[in-house]
Amino acid sequence: MSSNILLGITGSIAAYKSADLVRNLTKQGFTVRVVMTQAATKFITPLTLQTLSNQPVYLDLFETGMEHINLARWADIILIAPITADFITKLTYGNADDLLSTICLATTAPVTIAPAMNQQMWNATITRENCQKLRQRNIKIFGPAIGSQACGEIGAGRMLEPLELVQCLQNLVLKQPLQGKQVLVTAGPTREDIDPVRFISNRSSGRMGYAVANAAAIKGASVILVSGPTALTTELPTISVYSAKDMLETVMANISNTDIFISVAAVADYRPVQQIKQKLKKDSEQLQLVLEPTEDILAKVTNLSKPPFTVGFAAETNDLDNYAHKKLITKKLDMIAANLVGIDDSGFDSINNKLKVFWNDGNIELPHCSKIELADKLLDIIIKRFFVKNL
Ligand code: CTP
């Protein structure tokens, strides 16, 4: 169970509540380390927080050497409470000009925030827009509460009470249903060489697969990502592969301890029979490539004597339900997530997507939204079916 909470405190009068928050978190068994911005130290002293957390308090990016990376790795969850409008903007745009913002950029832990500010600032269009962007990145926003404010106004902008925040974190920890589970995800396209300078591939960007891997990690799983060539980066343990054959070998080498296998990769179905050793010359009117089928990775996995819970993806241009259902049965999948490609702003190479998920006796449509939000929703469905199957 997650227990290392990195508490970020920024410069708001609500920082006085942070002392109580540290006390309540430690009482509930969490280990708390506090990182303060310079502005926060105007409202509450580091000594107070150090005494209550029984841990050093971190203030300065330049005095701490590589501590920002160590803290980023140490944290199971980051909570910034209170977070000011200014720090929300920093977080939105990925600034890294102080210790806390640098840690937020360097961590793979879920980041949560509890805003505290004047109600007008909370309702400002730019704050709303920033919060919307943070939500799309799966950053959880706790509160703010409505009530009387330190500035004398009444409205939304009060930081949640320390006990409420403890509850929020406990819910989050308990919502890590994949703790102790191993999840293997494939992502991106594969490349099948024609000659030393040319290959056959497809439009997959890898975004959906990376989002799925990330969502599984946020839900507590140990994740291995097997990725074809993409322009994406991730902090998750990743094995880069090139061709369908490489991907197959890597998946099979890592499948034995896998509880859930999610095959998001757009694996090439065919490869050139011959990979020509020297660059092909333009010396004929027509050129015919002879292709042979690649091995189906999913089918290979589901035919193991003890296959993991297996989820496939299907990208179709037409007849979605029919094809998806057929793949569910023929590949012996527990679940398949299907999407129509080549229409509007969905599918290959786009930020957004929508999915229809099928399993043996049901299906559900997940509406058009960012691939990050979609991955979170998809994981919730996978978890439900996985636990039903393993009851
Ligand atoms: N897949 C795989 N190995 C392959 C081809 C596909 O594991 N050699 C997986 C994909 O990762 C995906 C699912 O199978 O999860 C469906 O892939 P898709 O390309 O939609 O279907 P195909 O089985 O290749 O059928 P078709 O191309 O005819 O639609």
Structure description:
This protein is of the alpha/beta class and 391 residues long. The chain folds into 2 domains: 4-173, Rossmann fold (3-Layer(aba) Sandwich); 182-274 and 287-389, CoaB-like (Rossmann fold). It is built from 13 helices and 20 strands. The strands form 5 sheets. The chain has an 8-stranded mixed β-sheet with strand order 13-12-9-14-17-18-19-20, with helices on both faces. Helix 3 crosses helix 5. The protein is elongated. The two termini are 21 Å apart. The model has no long low-confidence stretch (mean pLDDT 91). Cytidine-5'-triphosphate binds at residues 244, 263, 265, 267, 269, 294, 296-298, 312-315, 327.
Which tags fit this structure?
eight-stranded mixed sheet, six-stranded parallel sheet, 20 strands, 13 helices, Rossmann fold
Unreliable runs: none
CATH superfamily of the largest domain: CoaB-like
Lateral arrangement of strands in the main beta sheet: 13-12-9-14-17-18-19-20
The whole-number mean of residue pLDDT values reads 91
- Give the cofactors and ligands: cytidine-5'-triphosphate
**Counted beta strands:** 20
So what's the overall shape? elongated
- What is the makeup of the main sheet? 8 strands, mixed
Report the sheet-strand fraction.
25-35%
Per CATH, the architecture of the largest domain is 3-Layer(aba) Sandwich
CATH class of the largest domain: Alpha Beta
Q: Please, how many domains? A: 2
Q: Helical region count?
A: 13
